[in-house]
Amino acid sequence: MSVSSAPVSTGYPNLDALLPRLEAISALTAEALEAEQIAILGRKSGLLTAALKSLAALPVEERKRYGAAVNQLKVRFETAFAGRAEALEADRRVREAAGVDLSMPGRRRWVGAEHPVTKVVDEILGIFRELGFAIATGPEVETEWYNFLALNFPADHPAMDMHDTLYLDAPPAAGEPGGKLLLRTHTSPVQIRTLLASPPPVRVVIPGMVYRNDAMDASHLPAFSQIEGLAVDEGISFVDLKATLTHFAHRFFSPTTRTRFRPSFFPFTEPSAEMDVECQLCHGNGCPACKGTGWMEILGCGMVHPAVLENCNLDSEKFTGWAFGMGPHRIVLLRYGVPDIRLLLGGDMRFLEQVGQPGGGGGGRDA
Ligand code: 2NL
Predict the structure, then answer these.
(1) How far apart are CA 220 and CA 297, in angstroms?
(2) Rounded CA gap, 211 and 292, in Å?
């Protein structure tokens, strides 16, 4: 341990000016200690070395007194330096014995990131929230009535077949309308529940998992996410649909992204359409990702079929509405140019680091 370095005055102000540095020695690091030794006692330009050299110019009496003071201070410094060096060495030996090496570089912490599907779902919901849409959720186990019949699927529609839909081997709860229990194949039953529970005006977006009896391949999952939206009120027209979904594409992709609507068919909408945006990889020139067309299909939509409104006890002469459905897993593939949907399930950090951060680049790992 360092010897006590109580600031006993030397009687010389220029030497006393060094006393705070004498006191500070007991807290120096090894590097600082070495530098301080050179600064105080260094042969060429150490402060006490200079004081000793200056003795030669003094009258004899003064040389004796001042010389003694400098030498005493020099001993105090030497003792303090030796004490600190010993203490540092003792510390080092303790850490070495404990297996701790403070000279090793630190390990950086991993910084987590949202899964790209979570990120895309939140972004999409955020854009519709800005427009006044509420967010609704509902059960993943449904009855045939909510999942199909209320949505104007004919009872013999192939989607209701065992080959396409996962049915449960259990009876529905008492009081639920109709038929067998199944894992919902889309989030539309939540829209039916919303229309039955609350009178128009209705504006909702509904995120959730949906299930189909599909084999997994590069573009299909048996369980995947969907977001559906619904606006029902008096006087709603296809203009509202087109304007809202075009605004969405501009907010989600970019303000200059081109869009187009193509006619399509769904049992629950009439007329029905599919919306394409310009390919996000080639911007319309044609590339493998868009199969040379320059366009990517991002959602299906249409005016709510009058039969669906009537099934929800709404007067289809009075109320109209539009709806859309899209698959966030698919949107992630399109937006980031991911070639295989299974990459979204694998948890492979090399993949997630590429698409999990803002802008798609950069590592989730901070190294
Ligand atoms: C798609 C297209 C769509 C809807 C979903 C909907 C819901 C109600 C009434 C009318 Cl309650 N429509 N939803 C409408 C058009 C398209 O989804 O490609 N889904 C995977």
Answers:
(1) 15
(2) 31
Quick: pLDDT tens for 47-72. 999 999 999 999 999 999 999 999 99
In one letter, which amino acid is 289?
Answer: A
Residue among 232, 172, 160, 228 at smallest CA distance from 196:
232
**CA of 150, closest atom in ligand 1:** 11
> What tens digit of pLDDT does each residue of 183-211 get?
999 999 999 999 999 999 999 999 999 99
**Ligand 1 pocket, residue 328 CB under 6 Å:** no
Return the H-helix or E-strand segment holding 277: strand 269-278
Closest CA to 152 of 267, 58, 54: 267
For 208, the enclosing helix (H) or strand (E) is strand 202-211
- DSSP code, position 132: T
- For residue 190, the one-letter residue type is V
Contact 260, 309 (CB under 8 A): no
- The predicted model scores a pTM of 0.71
CA 302 to ligand 1 centroid distance, Å? 7
| 117 Cβ inside 6 Å of ligand 1 | no
- Closest CA relative to residue 322, chosen from 252, 243, 258, 260: 243
Q: How remote is the CA of residue 103 from the centroid of ligand 1, in Å?
A: 61
**Would the CB of 188 count as within 6 Å of ligand 1?**
yes
Residue with CA closest to ligand 1 atom 18: 300
